């Protein structure tokens, strides 16, 4: 299908879903579009079963879109940059120890526990899934999705300190998950379980090789984003023109993404570092921007538009996921596993950190229930090495993500309101 026709169809469906949500469902945009997209997809599948040509064409269009490329090489860097711009850099720096602890330690604990639990669950169903593939599933489902989490926080009115902690962890832990996924995918490939993997740049599988790969990906991404962000800030400070300022920051995100791919460093972490640095420096020197209000409005609008498009396409991807009764049941059971493992991976580090940091009421509960999974997990699932287990983990991931966005996303607001009330009227029993 020509690119123009493909873009017209996808944007048209997204606009229709957004309109129907705003007119009838009136849910938060990402949730409403996801629900509407799922209903639309189920209707399309029904029409395909009836042999309707239009429905068959829609399915072919959905299959022609490489969802992982759309996420990692398309919208993700823009969304992370916009999200990082909105985070209070000073508050994040004050919480740097707990943020990094949760981003690193919690993700590592979650990958190990989720991998082991998945290995046990699949073998209980008589499936001889290799342990490395179960750990691969643990790596793609463990990191909370920054896009989904930041969208939730903007709607939920979470107390500022909790918001900074949850947002900071989510902005950084995806880098850990993606690196772990790349390493495990390389192990699966080396073991003969798959032909290729997502990163396209596998590490030496020795302890030293994996360590160097992590340093290159994570620290290299942060360094690239910091250097590029500083250069962009110096350009912003030298002009007083809103259009030029927008162009400079758009170029910053695109260049960071392209250079990160060429240098094999983390593009998401580069976008986060650039956004945090530009936000911090322009906060300290407001005169660097001709109009901070217009600048923030542009990036907020960009964030909203891309966010809606991402969740619409995420919902439409259900037409390319091959469900069976067994894989669907495993997906439902995986929801419970993910929540239990998330609770353990949050409670263990927070118990240690509580000796040095006082967490506001409901912090742990919000981190557990508000740790949404989203498009990044699905995008990684699409890049699992080809083989008999790829469809299984794609279905399990999709079921967990839909539950996370719809059920957790709709209910976390009530928990956030309780957290806000508890902060105004502290109760020692609510400190978790």
TrEMBL record:
It comes from the Bacteria. Keywords: Antiport, Cell membrane, Ion transport, Membrane, Sodium, Sodium transport, Transmembrane, Transmembrane helix, Transport. It is found in: Cell membrane. It is a multi-pass membrane protein. The chain crosses the membrane at residues 6-24, 31-50, 70-87, 99-117, 129-150, 171-190, 210-235, 242-261, 305-323, 329-354, 366-384, 396-416. The keyword Aminoacyl-tRNA synthetase does not apply. InterPro entries: Cation/H_exchanger_CPA1, Cation/H_exchanger_TM. Pfam families: Na_H_Exchanger. Residues 13-416 form the Cation/H+ exchanger transmembrane domain. Belongs to the monovalent cation:proton antiporter 1 (CPA1) transporter (TC 2.A.36) family. This is Sodium:proton antiporter. It comes from Deinococcus seoulensis. The lineage of its organism: Bacteria, Thermotogati, Deinococcota, Deinococci, Deinococcales.
């Amino acid at each position: 299908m020509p690119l123009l026709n493909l873009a017209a169809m996808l944007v048209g469906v997204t606009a229709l879903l957004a309109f129907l949500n705003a007119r009838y469902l009136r849910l938060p945009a990402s949730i409403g579009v996801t629900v509407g997209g799922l209903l639309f997809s189920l209707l399309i599948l029904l029409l395909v079963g009836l042999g309707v040509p239009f429905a068959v064409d829609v399915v072919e269009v959905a299959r022609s879109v490489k969802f992982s490329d759309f996420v990692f090489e398309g919208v993700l860097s823009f969304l992370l940059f916009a999200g990082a711009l909105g985070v209070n850099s000073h508050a994040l720096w004050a919480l740097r120890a707990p943020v990094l602890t949760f981003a690193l330690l919690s993700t590592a604990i979650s990958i190990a526990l989720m991998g082991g639990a998945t290995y046990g669950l699949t073998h209980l169903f008589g499936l001889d899934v290799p342990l490395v593939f179960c750990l691969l599933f643990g790596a793609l489902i463990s990191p909370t999705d920054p896009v989904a989490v930041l969208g939730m926080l903007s709607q939920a009115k979470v107390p500022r300190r909790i918001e900074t902690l949850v947002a900071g962890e989510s902005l950084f832990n995806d880098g850990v998950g993606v690196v772990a996924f790349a390493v495990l995918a390389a192990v699966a490939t080396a073991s003969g379980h798959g032909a290729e993997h997502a990163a396209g740049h596998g590490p030496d599988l020795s302890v030293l090789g994996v360590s160097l790969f992590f340093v290159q990906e994570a620290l290299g991404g942060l360094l690239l984003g910091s250097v590029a962000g500083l250069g962009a800030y110096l350009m912003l400070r030298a002009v007083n023109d809103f259009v030029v300022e927008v162009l400079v920051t758009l170029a910053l995100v695109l260049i960071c993404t392209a250079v990160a791919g060429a240098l094999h460093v983390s593009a998401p972490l580069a976008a986060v570092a650039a956004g945090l640095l530009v936000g911090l420096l322009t906060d300290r020197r407001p005169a660097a921007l001709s109009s901070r209000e217009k600048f923030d409005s542009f990036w907020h609008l960009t964030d909203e538009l891309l966010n809606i498009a991402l969740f619409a396409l995420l919902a439409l991807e259900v037409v390319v996921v091959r469900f069976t009764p067994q894989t669907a049941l495993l997906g439902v059971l995986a929801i419970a596993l993910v929540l239990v493992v998330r609770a353990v991976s949050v409670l263990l580090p927070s118990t240690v950190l509580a000796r040095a940091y006082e967490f506001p009421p409901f912090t742990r509960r919000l981190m557990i229930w508000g740790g949404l999974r989203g498009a990044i997990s699905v995008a990684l699932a699409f890049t699992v090495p080809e083989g008999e287990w790829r469809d299984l983990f794609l279905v399990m991931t999709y079921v967990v993500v839909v539950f996370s966005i719809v059920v957790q996303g709709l209910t976390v607001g009530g928990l956030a309101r309780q957290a806000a009330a508890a902060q105004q009227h502290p109760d020692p029993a609510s400190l978790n």
